[in-house]
User: Fold Aspartyl/glutamyl-tRNA(Asn/Gln) amidotransferase subunit C from Legionella birminghamensis.
Amino acid sequence: MTFSINDLHLIAKLAHIDVEAEEMSSLAEEVNSIIDFAEQMQEIDTDQILPLFHPMDMHQRFRDDEVSESSCLQQLEEIAPLFEDTHYLVPKVIDTGKQDV
Assistant:
């Protein structure tokens, strides 16, 4: 599988990413290199390899799941800059381009 420059233009448009025209050919090479590497990895025979669930042979220690009456909501409300009806109010960080209603 290879991606053409037209494919990357479409993907960039769908993802709302601005990519300069001069960058498209090098981007296509990089993406195709990554795809080639993934295809090489898929060709590796892993039938005799056991799944690795955790890199270290350790057991997770879990605490007992006990119901307790602990609510620090009032403490959090006191230290939060803006807090309303159990919600933190934060400034808008992503501009969607739409007007607030």
Notes: The radius of gyration is 25 Å.
